[in-house]
């Protein structure tokens, strides 16, 4: 019955609902124990043992027993509908309990009204938006009833301040508190909304990871077979060996493409998190160059490197990917026989470190510069050259540098080449 | 002889790893799921488990959860080799006692063996 979509109750997944119900019970343990201890101590200190059977103490021990019952039942019956049923009973019970406590404490003047907040907020957390408002309505109704009972000489009348309530108009404060309850429900609703979005983003990220896993696995097997064949069969004729190497490199490019698309998807779903550690930018750049030496050699391009060891604080995997994208880009837009220069240098001020990738390629027209780091943008010049690409490479470089609070800049002269510069804070010590 | 257990449900990758480890002089056994691996580790002791994450029947994480209890003071090392690179799963695997987490597509079988040798060299965690 709780799955009825028309009611728009957001019934959580089995594990999540059980986890939250568990939290609910824990929170209540804390509340009840505090009330019981304070109640017993104050009654004992003020009135002595003989008067230890006050409403507070009876209520607190009753609540302890009820909470223990919910605890056992929640563990005994673990089906989703059963868990939802216990959760619902607990919310109704707590609303009733709050009303009882407010009633015995004199109603209108009692600060115990704060207890209504628990079931209202928990209704939102356990059953979603609408439930919080229904719980607020129930609370407001019961509260109005309690005030009326007090005003007519109920249990609360034993307190002197209850007499005040009898003389005053109770409608205004009841309405005031009803508004407060609805405000609480709105807050609970708002938090549920945020939580739902976070859950959805997490689900999207898991789906992206899963999809890339499926894409990578067969290509990983191909990589393994070719690498094993190349390593073990020295008698393979050179011609076949060359074909196998090309197959290996193409397969590597496919795997890199999956990594790049995954990265872009993670950036899109804001699921990309940095795993920062102290890293050597020179070494990372060197690794990135080595990963691409095969394709660069095939294009008969030359590589110049000046990569001293400079420490930075960052995510090594992402920085290597960013450097790799810049090198891949430089190579793609440089003709045969051209030169790619990769350098790491510390700024004269000693604060920043730069990784620059220069090429002697086709360069970039001024009007195209602003488009470069946008997603899925491919320039006319690239299309004319017949260079393949995803339009994601420079976009991800920019996003990676943004996450590192760094920058990526470009200087270029059409027909002479371009220089891309990644700038990061240098790590000291 | 150093004894390795390869837990991998993708047949061709399992065969490749098995061959690479055997050629490198290791004694190798293999399992096609976390559940099968869980049965095997109960019966014999391994120096290193090469563990995939996403498998039918019992995932690598579930295997680690079970194994973490049994492992306690055991000397077995665990190297996760998976194409799943969700940071959340990586973190959980390391917390559950994996000594290393490698993204499978970045390594050839021979490089996996090299990484395993590295893991075996490092001192057992307290």
Quick overview:
The complex is a heterodimer of chains A (429) and B (126). By secondary structure, chain A is of the alpha+beta class. Chain A is 63% helix and 10% strand.
* Oligomeric category: heterodimer
Number of strands of chain B: 5
- Low-pLDDT runs of 5+ residues of chain B are none
The spatial strand order of the largest sheet of chain A comes to 2-4-5-7-6
Structure overview:
The complex is a heterodimer of chains A (429) and B (126). Chain A has 429 residues and is α+β, with helices and mostly antiparallel strands. Helix content of chain A is 63%, strand content 10%. The longest helix of chain A has 62 residues, at 171-232. The radius of gyration of chain A is 34 Å and the shape is elongated. Chain B is of the alpha/beta class and 126 residues long. Chain B is 45% helix and 19% strand. In chain B, strands 2-1-3-4-5 form a 5-stranded parallel sheet, with helices on both faces. In chain B, helix 1 packs across helix 5 (109-121) and helix 2 (34-43) runs parallel beside helix 3. The two termini of chain B are 24 Å apart. In chain B, 40% of the residues are buried. The model of chain B has no long low-confidence stretch (mean pLDDT 87). At the A-B interface, helix 7 and helix 8 of A face helix 1 and helix 4 of B.
Q: Which key features would you list for this structure?
A:
heterodimer; A: 429 residues; two-stranded antiparallel sheet; B: 126 residues; alpha/beta; five-stranded parallel beta sheet; 5 strands
Give the topology:
The complex is a heterodimer of chains A (429) and B (126).
Chain A: H1 14-47, H2 55-76, H3 80-104, H4 117-127, H5 129-151, H6 160-167, H7 171-232, H8 238-268, E1 277-280, H9 281-298, E2 302-306, E3 311-314, H10 316-332, E4 339-346, E5 352-359, H11 366-369, H12 380-385, H13 393-403, E6 407-413, E7 417-425
Parallel strand pairs in A: 2-4
Antiparallel strand pairs in A: 1-3, 4-5, 5-7, 6-7
Helix pairs in contact in A: 1-2, 1-3, 2-3, 3-4, 3-5, 4-5, 4-7, 5-7, 7-8, 8-13, 9-10, 10-13
Chain B: E1 3-7, H1 11-23, E2 27-31, H2 34-43, E3 48-51, H3 60-71, E4 77-82, H4 87-95, E5 100-103, H5 109-121
